[in-house]
Amino acid sequence: MFPLRVVYLLTDQPDGDLQHVVPVKMMVSVSKRHFKRAVKRNRVKRQVREAYRQNKEIVVSSMADSPNRQLLLGFIWMSDELHDTDTVERSMQVLLKRVADKL
Question: What's the whole-model pTM score?
Answer without folding.
Answer: 0.89
